[in-house]
Design brief:
The complex is a heterodimer of chains A (about 300) and B (about 350).
Chain A lengths: L1 H28 L2 E2 L6 E2 L8 H10 L3 H8 L1 H34 L5 H9 L6 H12 L4 H9 L12 H26 L3 H8 L4 H12 L1 H16 L3 H6 L7 H11 L3 H33 L1
Antiparallel strand pairs in A: 1-2
Helix pairs in contact in A: 1-14, 3-14, 4-8, 4-11, 8-11, 9-10, 11-14, 13-14
Chain B lengths: L1 H18 L3 E7 L5 H11 L2 E7 L2 H10 L6 E2 L3 H9 L19 H7 L9 E14 H8 L9 H4 L1 H7 L4 E3 L3 H11 L9 H14 L5 E2 L4 H6 L5 E5 H14 L5 E4 L5 E9 L7 H12 L1 H11 L2 E2 L10 H4 L8 H5 L1 E2 L6 H16 L2
Parallel strand pairs in B: 1-2, 1-3, 5-6, 5-7, 9-11
Antiparallel strand pairs in B: 4-7, 4-8, 4-9, 4-10
Helix pairs in contact in B: 9-10, 10-17
The chains are: A mainly alpha (about 300), B alpha/beta (about 350).
């Protein structure tokens, strides 16, 4: 009995924090938009008991999903989000790897400080940090003023309200999620392996490529998922830094909910986004599991 | 068990009520009041005024229809008010608590009754038109002295927009206002609810959308005033506020507002009390405060919008009451149109069209 209680706690959390909200969203996605409070119908009337439930079930249909399939805007937005998430994950990796490498190679007494510096930006609100980029990237922003002053450019660059600004925002925001797992992998590495490689005539670069890089692979995979999954559904960064032509599913979802006031369609978009994300989430889980087994 | 919970809840609510001062939560449009009035309300009534702002009717409606918004006073425009009344979002006003209601202007009340029959749910706060805000110097430089600054051709003719793009054009992020304008430009009925009729706006808007720097409903005030953009399709008073800010900054930027010659949308922003307002009594006090002639005059003098308060007119400054861009003369009034709310199916067509136009897909 005791054992059963112990096991049931995590499942209870799963049901309360994931399954119930998901079922609510799923239910709304099967309803029709209506001019009422809340703005969809049918609503479940439990006071009528079983008959109420039947009436409610009868009112649900897949119409909103057909509608999504019909309208290529959504597919374009999903694809464009996939593209933006994939490119920014790669860019984040390019920036993060040297970072993590430097941290792992730094003197032991420095490492806690460096780690702290990576985590430090989290102490400021995410929203404020993204807003700060508006001031840096705008036409009259710091970056343009600096470049004009150095004479590198003659006309200000238009970066804000374009996809470039979105990439910059995502790379900046998610950088720690990539650095930390790579750092963890590199830090565990046995340095004598590199000495052995050099003794056997490996150049420093090939030693890095043949030993260090493969050993950090687990960290790279973990970091990539940690960046890719949230970047896919990102809303704040494209809304603040992107232009009206930045098509991302998080933004479409927001518009569907707030501007179009179409909760059922918004919910259907969310359900499909979840289904799309389940694939990388499962892959991530598998990878973690393999890791644990390899270590155990 | 259930009774205990209710008693506990009631006790909690009661203690919360006695501990903190009375509060009124007002949700109004951004840049839409003289903030000195907010302080004045607090001093006069001793009520804590918590003031939030929005810049889109759509967002307000989302919050209202979700229920439990927590606001005591909200300010939707006429067509949205009408939809929300149908949805049961508002409570009827208690006229016995609005001693200043006699100040209202019957001419405006007659027009707002189109959305709120008998004006039972709302009072008019301000009204205005949607039109063209132009940086006259820069536009003349780009399009020549005979630039059509009083015509929708300025923003809906791609030839003009192509030239203006480099200088910056903002359009309101409000499909319910931009689509009727595009129809008016084509000479169609701006209040068309026929999907085929509305589709005609698509061609006009899609052709100029690539040249639009931003679809946004509040940033254009500062952008116009700073000279960052040349043209904004926006709300009359907001453009005039931009004109004023440019004057104050003495930055050489000259802004003008024109109601388009093809016809301009006339809209009414109405103050109403949500059905589930936590403090309807305080909300009535706020409404009555706004209905006061002097307060309403102060508000209009500050934001350059006409109001629906006849008694406030003697207190209005000459550059408000005497400006036909704010209080239109008979000829301009002739050229104004009003719209009625879309039903839920047409609404979907309209919003879909809008998302497409903005994202260029």
């Amino acid at each position: 009995m005791k054992r059963f209680t112990l096991i049931s706690v995590p499942y209870l959390w799963l049901i309360v924090l994931f399954l119930v909200p998901f079922l609510i969203v799923l239910k709304v996605s099967l309803s029709d938009a209506a001019l009422a409070i809340p703005p969809y119908s049918p609503t479940l009337d439990l006071s009528q008991g079983w008959a109420g439930i039947l009436v409610w079930l009868d009112g649900l249909d897949m119409e909103n999903y057909w509608f999504l399939a019909d309208d290529n805007l959504y597919w374009k937005a999903y694809l464009s989000s996939l593209k933006i998430a994939a490119i920014s994950t790669f860019l984040t990796f390019l920036v993060a790897y040297p970072f993590a490498y430097g941290m792992a190679r730094a003197a032991d007494e420095w490492q806690p400080t460096l780690l702290m510096l990576v985590i430090l930006p989290f102490w400021t609100s995410f929203l404020i940090r993204v807003y700060a980029w508006k001031a840096i990237l705008s036409v009259e922003g710091f970056l343009n003023q600096f470049l004009l002053w150095t004479g590198a450019i003659h006309d200000p660059l238009i970066i804000l309200n374009t996809n470039v600004a979105v990439y910059i925002g995502i790379v900046y925001t998610y950088l720690p999620f990539m650095i930390l797992p790579i750092y963890a992998a590199l830090e565990k590495m046995d340095a004598s392996l590199l000495e052995a490689a050099e003794d056997l005539g490996c150049s420093r670069f090939s030693a890095f490529w043949l030993i260090t890089f493969p050993l950090s692979r687990q960290g790279i995979i973990a970091g990539s998922f940690l960046v890719f999954i949230p970047a896919m559904g990102e809303f704040v960064i494209p809304a603040l830094l992107g232009g009206s032509r930045t098509l991302m599913i998080g933004k479409v979802l927001w518009e569907e909910f707030f501007s179009n006031r179409d909760w059922p369609v918004a919910s259907a978009v969310a359900v499909i986004l979840l289904l799309i994300l389940i694939i990388p989430i499962i892959l991530f889980q598998r990878n973690e599991q393999k890791n644990r087994e390899a270590q155990g | 068990m259930k009774t205990t919970l209710i008693t506990f809840g009631a006790a909690l609510a009661f203690s919360a009520g006695t501990l903190s001062a009375e509060q009124v939560r007002v949700y109004n449009w951004s840049d839409y009041i003289d903030e000195a009035l907010l302080e004045k309300f607090e001093t006069e009534t001793g009520i804590d005024l918590i003031y939030y702002v929005f810049d889109s009717n759509e967002i307000l409606e989302t919050k209202l229809l979700a229920g439990g918004s927590g606001y005591d006073v909200v300010v939707p425009s006429g067509t949205f008010l009408q939809r929300q009344i149908t949805a049961g979002a508002f409570q009827t006003l208690d006229m016995s608590k609005l001693s200043n209601a006699g100040n209202l202007w019957d001419v405006i009340a007659a027009r707002t009754a189109q959305y709120d029959p008998a004006n039972a749910y709302s009072i008019n706060y301000m009204w205005g038109t949607t039109g063209l805000g132009v940086n006259t110097g820069k536009v003349a430089e780009i399009l020549g002295a005979d630039a059509p600054i009083g015509s929708l051709a300025l923003i809906f003719d791609p030839a003009n927009m192509e030239k203006l793009a480099g200088c910056g054009v903002h359009l309101l992020d409000a499909p319910a206002e931009v689509i009727p304008a595009a129809l008016a430009y084509l000479g169609e009925d701006p209040n068309s609810h026929d999907p085929d009729g509305i589709a005609k706006a698509d061609a006009v808007l899609s052709a100029v959308a690539p040249y639009v720097l931003k679809f946004h409903s509040s940033e254009y005030i500062n952008a116009l005033a700073n000279g960052e953009i040349c043209v904004a399709f926006g709300w009359s008073g907001d453009v005039l506020q931009a004109r004023d800010r440019a004057w104050e900054a003495e930055n050489g930027v000259e802004i003008a507002y024109n109601a388009p010659s093809e016809g301009a949308l006339m809209w009414f922003d109405q103050m109403a009390i949500p059905a589930d307002a936590p403090n309807p009594d305080g909300a009535h006090k706020f409404l009555n405060f706004i209905l006061d002639a002097q307060n309403m005059a102060d508000a209009s003098n500050y934001v350059y919008y006409a109001n629906g308060n006849l008694a406030s007119q003697p207190m209005l400054e000459e550059d408000v009451i005497g400006d036909p861009a704010i209080y239109p003369d008979a000829a301009t009034l002739e050229n104004l149109y009003t719209t009625t709310p879309y039903d839920i199916r047409v609404q979907r067509t309209v919003t879909r069209l809008w998302t497409r136009i903005k994202s260029g897909t």
